[in-house]
Amino acid sequence: KMTTDNHLRHVESLPVFPSGAGNIPRLNAVILGEALASEENDYVFPSDDFSRNAHVSSPSQYLEMYKRSVEDPAGFWSEIASEFYWEKKWGDKVCSENLDVGKGAVNIEWFKGGITNICYNCLDRNVEIGNGDKVALYWEGNDLGSDDSLTYSQLLEKVCQLANYLKDVGVKKGDAVIIYLPMLMELPIAMLACARIGAIHSVVFAGFSSESLAQRIVDCKPKVVLTCNAVKRGAKVIGLKDIVDAGLAESTKNGVSVDVCLTYENQTALKRENTKWTQGRDIWWQDVVPKYPSTCDVEWVDAEDPLFLLYTSGSTGKPKGVLHTTGGYMVYTATTFKYAFDYKPSDIYWCTADCGWITGHSYVTYGPLLNGASCIVFEGAPTYPDASRCWDIVDKYKVSIFYTAPTLVRSLMREGTQHVTRYSRKSLRVLGSVGEPINPSAWRWFFNVVGDSRCPISDTWWQTETGGFMITPLPGAWAQKPGSATYPFFGVQPVIVDEKGNELEGECSGYLCVKHSWPSAFRTLFGDHERYETTYFKPFPGYYFTGDGCSRDKDGYYWLTGRVDDVINVSGHRIGTAEVESALVSHPQCAEAAVVGVEHEVKGQGIYAFVTLVEGVPYSEDLRKSLVMAVRTQIGAFATPDKIHWAPGLPKTRSGKIMRRILRKIASRQLDELGDISTLAEPAVVDQLIALADK
Ligand code: ATP
Ligand code: MG
Asked: Would strands 558-563 and 543-552 be described as parallel, antiparallel, or unpaired?
């Protein structure tokens, strides 16, 4: 039996505010569309109008649905699953799980015995219900003025042609296919084509080096690699095919060779005459794929058959090969998309993530298409040709839901508001954030400037491993607090535990775990179930351990405080890095901050802060003092940074996350222990930082 009582108590004690700001003093609350959110405002309420039209309109409606989802998960999720097409319905058991390593192998299954296909549900089903002529994908190229689009019917045809080709070269159900493509429409097309024939796709972000690509090829032994010859990113042309050639050579040396490399000719970046070619292995996409029939029978698969394999972004070490299966993932990504963004059929949706990351899987490709949404696939860099590109795109397509990462928000903030306010942005309705905790000051800028204080922000906390949103606002349901991911999604039971694994009650902070499975939980690490259990289920037996630290405030809101390894213990005070970073970023001249702990003779650990400054601001002793002051006044003297390290740039993963493990080594001057820096976006930043260390 599922024990949910503890958790339900938290949720039931959530403050149920009457509509509008109600009993919250005016100073603390602001209502969507009525005023700017200032530092005095703890709460941002949806307007009556927004709530009235939302899928979930009030805290009490959420509570009712949430309660049902954890008391009767089988009933709750099978009702939703029934809205999809199943060739055969699942068996008696909607879910079976064991998360307790003490009771045998960790095992999670949802809708086992159910036979379906996610590509069918994304495309064929939409065509059948009358969405055939609706635009599925808008494509916006790197260069201004280059664009394209595909309706649901057209997308289905393209997917079928590629699926037929893949079958023809021998790809069968259960085979792996590596996709190394930039954000062309061919990328989601390739994912869907694999799903259609039951092949397991593994998208490798097309910014990874040939070694990283080779590692992944050796790991999953694909039948085929799908790529393109080159891509333009900003003003640069990147020769992807050269990287793939090197990756394939490297993997062959390691005993894994690939027979087919299907290459899309991306003419605007590089002509085929200028592309290096390996006869027999390399094939031009445009020469073969369009010749195949534009219909293709679906390979029906079990809900528990694998859908894809994807590596985590590597912020904390060697990336992990996360495996997701079909049925639960389908139901969960579609449902989270619908509720967290309050999606309506008239919305135009843009998520800036690349399909090389989980966000691009769940919320560029599958979640939106399962809902019949029109979404934008953007090839370029968000600051090319200049910092206003995003708003140019928003106005061009009348984007109503805009989902991005704090790193982009902070970098645009650094460039100044004039780039934003030149554009109308009238179409925007809901904003979203993912990837890292969003600092309250960045949240306010996103809210006040980008959204004209009219659009709620869904700060979605989740992971590659979780497949879909775990803690996220439902924008019409309750008040938001800048910087908090708010409450758990339906069916998710977060718990905060102490070092010993005791569940903490009420207002608290500790390690974030999840009790019980949810439909899109990952089922294993590819080829390494033992590492799966050791990393995620052994630290706190009975729970899924997220690796993140978290606190819950008096109102039951959840605040992600960063990775647990990033918590700093200064003279017995446990300080979350996110908190100190937010204090620094709230300083008007600080663009970005990354805080790590260093050994300290007296205090145990000291606080070491790397800061980047707003465009054009020089670093000085006065500025250093006022940055330190910002932390002292906002948090307290105990959190005073011991060192401010001025940084022209910070080391980031290719998905834009700050890599603190490298900063920790620089801070403690353990320069020979920097470890693997191959997943860094710009490895040169590291040398720059080292050079500035004692300045
Ligand atoms: P690796 O696991 O290899 O170190 P990673 O954790 O960065 O890489 P992802 O799965 O892409 O790989 O990222 C998930 C992590 O990102 C979460 O565990 C959390 O630390 C952070 N995160 C994502 N969204 C949010 C959010 N809205 N608020 C706070 N943190 C977030
Ligand atoms: Mg992780």
From this structure: antiparallel
Catalytic residues: 565
Mean of pLDDT values over 13-24: 58
Number of neighbouring beta carbons within 10 Å of residue 427: 15
500 C-beta neighbours (distance < 10 Å), count: 6
SS3 195: helix
Cα maximum dimension of the chain: 73
Print burial letters for 663-675: b (CB count within 10 Å at least 16), e (below 16): bbbbbeeeeeebe
Q: What share of the chain is helix, strand, coil (3-state, %, to 5)?
A: 35, 25, 45
572-602 per-position pLDDT tens digit: 888 888 889 999 999 999 999 999 999 998 8
Separation of CA 82 and ligand 1 centre (Å)? 31
CA 312 – ligand 2 centroid, Å: 6
Integer Cα distance of 565 and 656 in angstroms: 19
Are 245 and 276 in contact, with CB atoms under 8 Å apart?
Answer: yes
**What mean pLDDT value characterizes the chain?**
93
Handedness of CA 474, 592, 423, 402 (dihedral sign): negative
Alpha carbon of residue 325 to chain centroid: 18
Return the amino acid letter for 158. Answer: K
Q: What is the Cα 407 distance to its own chain's centre?
A: 12
Distance CA 397, CA 632 (A): 45
Digit-coded pLDDT (tens) for 106-123: 999 999 999 999 999 999
pLDDT of residue 22: 56
pLDDT digits (tens, 9 = 90+) for 86-111: 999 999 999 999 999 999 999 999 99
Tokens of 229: 């010859």
Does residue 19 carry a pLDDT above 70?
no
Measured distance CA(419)–CA(438) in Å, rounded: 21
pLDDT given for residue 672 in this prediction = 87
pLDDT at 18 over 70: no
Give long-range contacts, CB 8 A cutoff, 24+ apart: 491-497.
491/69, 491/70, 491/73, 491/76, 491/77, 491/518, 491/519, 492/518, 493/4, 493/7, 493/70, 494/7, 494/470, 494/550, 494/558, 495/6, 495/7, 495/543, 496/550, 496/551, 496/552, 497/540, 497/543
Pocket residues: Cβ below 6 A from ligand 1: 312-316, 319-320, 358, 433-437, 459-464, 485, 546-548, 560, 563, 655, 657
List the alpha helices (DSSP H) in 507-601. Answer: 529-532, 577-585
Burial of 32 (0-12, 13-18, 19+ CB in 10 A): buried
Site to substitute for ligand 1 among 463, 469, 481, 551, most atoms within 8 A of C-beta? 463
Distance CA 330, CA 172 (A): 21
CA distance 427 to 430: 10
In sequence order, which residues have a C-beta less than 8 Å from that of residue 580 and are 6 or more positions away? 568, 593, 595, 607, 609, 631, 635, 639, 641
